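Build the 3D complex.
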Amino acid sequence: MLEILRCTVNGRPVEVAYDPRESLADTLRQRLGLTSVKKGCDVGECGACTVLVDGKAITSCIYLTAWAEGKSILTVEGLQGENGELSPIQKAFVEEAAVQCGFCTPGIIMSAVEIVGTGRTYTRDELRKLISGHLCRCTGYENILNALERAVNEANGK
Amino acid sequence: MYDIASLYSASCAEDAISELARDPEAVVIAGGTDVLIKIRAGELAGCRLVSIHGIRELEGVTCRENGDLHIGPLTTFRGITQSEVIRRCVPCLGEAADQAGGPQLRAMGTIGGNVCNGVTSADSASTLMALDAIFRVRGPDGQRDIPISEWYRGVGKVALRHAELLTCIIIPRRHYEGFSGHYIKYAQRSAMDIATLGVSCLVKLSGDKARAEQVRLAFGVAGPVPMRALTAEAGAAGLPVDEAIEKIGALALADVNPRTSWRASREFRMQLIKELSGRALRQAVINGGGAVKC
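Done.
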């Protein structure tokens, strides 16, 4: 039997029918068409399905949709500007060539949004730890860290 | 889609307890980072879930007037690490919680779930053991307090009866006051890995900080459940710090009983226990303002 979820997705109020057995990743992808949310491991280990729930980065494949009632959810689709322009974090990833196949990218971008949103600066080792919940099999992570460092520094006016 | 027969979202602790009392087979789900994995693996497939996710009364850390710490079981690993009370009174518990899984898991997984699933490798468990925590549980027949020494009953088994809910983790003031501590997780990766061995050590130094007046040593994965190393604690107590650091590892070998698993052999774990006990004590001494030669 379907239930109704009321929450905010990418700044807009949403009402959507869902099956209580669904993960948030399934609901976002299949019912709301937000396919930036990738399903990689489906057990919360790879980070590809990372979205923000009330500002916190979580792996949406091991988060029941029922828990999102009344919450505010942000995915990569919610980052673009009015005319479809990329956010500063996305631009930093482009500038630093931090993307190869792109499968892990939306999840890492969402963790980056959380990290940049703290308004703090971080050492490279701290950043390494903060994105340690993501697997990337292409880049070797160096360019991702460069992009993250750039995004954090830019946000802090450096 | 998860293979779940039903999902009951409890509104408060009482509501969860009465629903669990109605359904003797129901499974409690909190942060979901263990239960959902087990459902997906087939272990809990077809189960009926009672969700306590987001119940406010079970979240947060407070320091009571008498100095006892009350930790809500739904406090996430990150909530533990970031808590001002934890940072001030038991920083080593916050550091241990910061080594579970990865950042996203730590924003979801709860300290209550970490101890209720009865797993020996739980990153918060050995430090809670060393702190000799008390688990307050509530059920249809009321409330009772269970010391952590009586909590673990076997692999995946704890003293919780069906329809009982862990409602508070208590760390009495005298269990942490004057102690400094350190947790070491030994694993193959720095993130997203399960401990091959975990060791937590607390020490209360003498006034001149030259001797280890009291030592508490606890392990994860040194046996089927998290355990204290009482022989090692007694043997190290009262010794000058350098001597305690040197001796504690060998002493701990009498307390433990690790097994060979695909992660590591018994022999390797024994070596880790011997080596890491001293290192954990050494750092605990340093954290307590003591000086070490070795």
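The longest strand of chain B covers residues 197-205.
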